[in-house]
């Protein structure tokens, strides 16, 4: 059985192979190439895992899952935080050809169920530390709602059927059955701009290339000690070069539960971390901490700070070398594929003021005008791209794909960009109906749909509002049928089960929504209203 997805046209695929981008090797190779290595692969709290241990743990779990009947072409819903088991599970599933969705740990019922209904998973792997899985109530609900789910495994349970138990199970002549390299390896999460969170099928070939090329550009090797303090399941943290890039190079991943300076500075010092990946708000917090207490030499080993996920203001960028004492690399990527980096040997001007260049010579990237024609260099347009690691369609979403792709298979990311004569890209705005809350993406329509389910809500529109720390926060404008308090709406959304970062930071009750000439809420006007009314979240 194979998982359906939109394939690259044959001619392009042949070219990608010829040029060595696609090497027809499954992602399991990232770990198994170091199977005999006793170097440290992962540090999480007091736990250390060598490559040999990680590979053996993944193999034992794969064997146990295989004995339970899971097989190539099946899918799994996985929700693990920044813990070593995230990688053990990921590689175990790849070994038996089961394609996971790695939900973020911040995700709640709404997101988990949206993913489950798209992939009809046979397997659920979740964590007792997550509020939803503290007892069995929600687990039972999920299993009842999704009859395909015939195996549920919990981290933090005891006994041989727990995740820990299965990882410890004795190995018996396991034979790996990964899916073919040009088939779906797993699903990546889209930040989304529509009502339901969409899934991105990633093949072994395209993802492995993205990782190898990232490693090359960022010069990761066996001496790399990488701090992963952003959600480890996120595409950025996994592949740009992320943990998988570190594993490919035989370096060491140091996991942190969050990017706070309190937690991260001591970890950097203790484990002599030399590279970290952050989103812009975390950079602000690190800089603030340094201004308040100095860094007491704790960051001396840090050589490179990657920053991406959301726009990095130039003023903040310039403070990084000056105050943190390391080099900055801007990363502009997307779970859909395309990744841009500033190069380590770029001049300061490009590093501080651009989001870098596409990493692959065969990334085709251009900026389109309203009619879909290329604009001149230096002009603003919508980002259009295709290439050896950029997907060709969301999973089972023909309607969304008809809008997101042009006739030649170019994906329109919804970003407004300027490309200069040398190919450097600046992200200057966004056209998609999304809020980028410090790197965490919120699809306005998803939250508006949920708000509309509240009995007091007649109309709802979610827009971004500027925020000094987060870059953007979200503001919900509500036309109410009956009196309703903002806090009550937020509480109601939380109870419905939506990730905290998607809860409106501000709720503004209005008499009516301004409309565009086609009768849709005029979000430009609403954003002006935020300024006129001086709305803040403080
Ligand atoms: P996602 O679809 O969730 O993977 O999010 C990808 C989106 O994040 C991009 O399309 C951009 O809108 C945004 N993004 C990522 N990195 C950057 C960056 N360095 N600067 C500005 N926006 C970024
Ligand atoms: O925001 C992102 O999705 C992102 C940012 C940087 C990403 O997917 C990536 C690098 O790979």
From TrEMBL:
Domain AMP-binding enzyme C-terminal span(s) in chain numbering: 446-520
Keyword line: Ligase, Nucleotidyltransferase, Transferase
Key word 4Fe-4S present: no
Domain of life per record: Bacteria
Keyword Ligase carried by entry: yes
CDD domains (UniProt xref): 23DHB-AMP_lg
Listed transmembrane segments: none
Pathway recorded for this protein: Siderophore biosynthesis
Enzymatic class: transferase
InterPro entries tied to this protein: AMP-bd_C, AMP-bd_C_sf, AMP-binding_CS, AMP-dep_synth/lig_dom, ANL_N_sf, ATP-dep_AMP-bd_enzyme, DHB_AMP_lig
One biological process term in Gene Ontology: siderophore biosynthetic process
Domain AMP-dependent synthetase/ligase: 36-395
Record EC number: 2.7.7.58
Single GO term (MF): 2,3-dihydroxybenzoate--[aryl-carrier protein] ligase
Pfam family, one: AMP-binding_C
Protein name, as recorded: (2,3-dihydroxybenzoyl)adenylate synthase
């Amino acid at each position: 059985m194979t998982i359906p997805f939109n394939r690259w046209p044959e001619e392009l695929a042949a070219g990608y192979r010829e040029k060595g981008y696609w090497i027809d090797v499954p992602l399991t190779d990232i770990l198994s190439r170091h199977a005999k290595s006793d170097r440290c692969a992962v540090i999480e709290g007091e736990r250390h895992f060598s490559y040999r241990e990680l590979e053996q743990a993944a193999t034992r779990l794969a064997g146990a899952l295989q004995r339970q009947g899971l097989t190539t072409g099946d899918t799994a819903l996985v929700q693990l935080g920044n813990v070593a088991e995230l990688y053990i599970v990921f590689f175990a599933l790849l070994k038996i050809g089961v394609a996971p969705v790695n939900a973020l740990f911040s995700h709640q019922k709404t997101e988990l169920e949206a993913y489950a209904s798209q992939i009809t998973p046979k397997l659920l792997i979740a964590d007792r530390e997550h509020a939803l899985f503290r007892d069995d109530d929600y687990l039972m609900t999920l299993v009842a709602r999704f009859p395909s789910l015939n195996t549920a495994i919990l981290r933090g349970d005891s006994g041989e059927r727990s995740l820990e138990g299965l990882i410890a199970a004795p190995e018996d002549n396991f034979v790996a059955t990964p899916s073919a390299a040009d088939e779906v390896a797993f699903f990546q999460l889209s930040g989304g701009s529509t009502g339901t969170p969409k899934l991105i099928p990633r093949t072994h070939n395209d993802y492995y290339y993205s990782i190898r090329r990232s490693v090359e550009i960022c010069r990761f090797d066996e001496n790399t000690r990488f701090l992963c303090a952003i959600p480890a399941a996120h595409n950025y943290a996994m592949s740009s070069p992320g943990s998988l890039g570190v594993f490919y190079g035989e370096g060491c991943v140091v996991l942190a539960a969050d990017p706070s300076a309190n937690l991260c500075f001591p970890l950097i010092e203790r484990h002599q971390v030399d590279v970290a990946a952050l989103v812009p708000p975390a950079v602000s917090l690190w800089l603030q901490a340094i201004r308040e207490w100095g860094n007491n030499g704790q960051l001396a080993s840090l050589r490179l700070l990657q920053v991406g996920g959301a726009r990095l203001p130039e003023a903040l960028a310039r403070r990084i070398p000056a105050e943190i004492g390391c080099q900055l690399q801007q990363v502009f990527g997307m779970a859909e594929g395309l990744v841009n980096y500033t190069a380590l040997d770029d001049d300061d001007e490009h590093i501080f003021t651009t989001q870098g260049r596409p990493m692959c010579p065969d990334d085709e990237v251009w900026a389109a005008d309203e009619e879909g024609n290329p604009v001149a260099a230096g002009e603003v347009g919508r980002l259009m791209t295709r290439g050896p690691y950029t997907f060709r369609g969301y999973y089972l979403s023909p309607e969304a794909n008809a809008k997101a792709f042009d006739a030649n298979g170019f994906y329109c990311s919804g970003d407004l960009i300027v490309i200069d004569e040398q190919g450097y890209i600046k992200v200057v705005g966004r056209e998609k109906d999304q809020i980028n809350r410090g790197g965490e993406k919120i699809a306005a329509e998803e939250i508006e749909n949920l708000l509309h389910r509240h009995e007091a809500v007649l109309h709802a529109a979610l827009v971004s509002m500027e925020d000094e720390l987060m870059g953007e926060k979200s503001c919900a404008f509500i036309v109410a049928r009956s009196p309703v308090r903002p806090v009550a709406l937020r509480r109601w959304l939380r109870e419905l089960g939506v990730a905290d970062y998607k809860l409106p930071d501000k709720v503004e009750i209005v008499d009516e929504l301004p409309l565009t000439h086609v009768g849709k809420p005029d979000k430009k006007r609403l954003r002006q209203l935020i300024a006129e009314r001086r709305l803040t979240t403080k």
